[in-house]
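Q: Hi! First time doing this. I have a protein sequence and I read that you can turn it into a structure. Is that right? Here it is:
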Amino acid sequence: MTIPRTIRMHENDNVAIVVNAGGLPEGTIFPDGLTLTTRVPEGHKVALVDIAQGAPIVRYDVTIGHALQPIARGTWIEESLVGMPAARGLDDLPKPVRDRAPLAPLEGYTFEGFRNPDGSVGTRNILAISETVQCVSGVVAFAIDRIKKELLPNYPHVDDVVAIEHTYGCGVAIDAPGAEIPIRTLRNIAKNPNFGGRVMLVSLGCEKLQPARMFPAGSIPIQAPDTVCLQDAAHVGFGDMIESIMRTAEKHLAVLNERRRETVPASELVVGVQCGGSDAFSGVTANPAVGFASDLLVRAGAAVMFSETTEVRDGIDQLTARAADDGVAEAMIREMAWYDEYLKRGGVDRSANTTPGNKKGGLANITEKAMGSIIKSGTAPIAGVLSPGDKLQQKGLIYAATPASDFICGTLQLAAGMNMHVFTTGRGTPYGLAAVPVVKVATRDDLARRWHDLMDINAGRIATGDATIADVGWELFHFLLDVASGRKKTWAEHWKLHNALTLFNPAPVT
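A: Yes, that's right. Below is the predicted 3D structure, encoded as structure tokens:
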């Protein structure tokens, strides 16, 4: 006989979510006497008490909405019954807690990585070919296909060749406010630790994003960009262009092939955390486990980035209280205010974030989604804030301001310098990146079983009681070290799945 189960996140909550796969039918009686007056799908909320019209609906000890009509105990709280609360104002927010005890150091953990000339460490050894403009993408793709077939086998210590392909570079207002974001993003992606400190660039010649603007003097401290310009008069026909790219690539492959893994401390990890295809279990299983692992990484001296502005906006009061100092709190408020204005210009607000899949998975609105998303950041003090496209310069827990779009967030975290990526999902997504390993964490047993060859870690065991948050957090921590060392591959790497990079460009397109 199936035992009906719910999960209540806090003793003050007046709702809980149904754990049972497939949901529960009307008339189900729980051990405490709660009887369902309607069917309740898996992951969706059930009222634990009678809730009056206009009264708060509380989950995570936070008001996630107000009842739009009276809701009886045992009723399925559908999205249509929940009025979304107003956004928290950005004035009079909690100040950073001054007497917070630091997390205990975690010592002795290492991985095998590629040390770069600038001191950073890669988890992979990849030749990246940057592009100034979308116009060259087809040519570069053709060249890379030949490089992989004809050249890469001769350089066994190089893991891959990838294009930094994008849809920017021309047909844009390149001097407008906001245009600096995609430009510095492309510049900083080229300096990612997995690319060995060498920059190879393919330009068309007539584009607005000229190589000198993309890489001004001094922006690449180790080696000036090695540029192939397709409109160069020396190129006679398509074949000449391809040969020029291949000759330049072979020089870089020869240098990269000399690199070897060496034992480095876990503090050299730069981990970006993100969620996509979220459901009501995201904030119960996968994201808390990632938060536990985030704390372990910070204790080991590593850098961890959490992002997705619209998915933390509703918890800004929690975050300013966790800031390391007033400057960090003010920087976070500044990023939230900028994004509020950005959404306002587009005629939308933060409610535009939630997807049909989020709602089908039990998330009523962005406030509820945000509470589950923030948990990925763990409990460490927030040591710094990055604006979109900036490169990370410090260790600890960092808020990297990005849109919540999976693809834009991943691109911006790549530009910030991440060498490992953790991605949680409840609905399921084959998301991956070519430039950095992506570890996928499933929120539910059912997803982990069905997508057994796409999900790397099953956090659904937390909901069923077969594992604790700490169990899965430690499992993820050790898996990250193994993947970083090349001892293991993620499923996305195994299948060579990757999404296109997507630049954040708030400036006009001409």
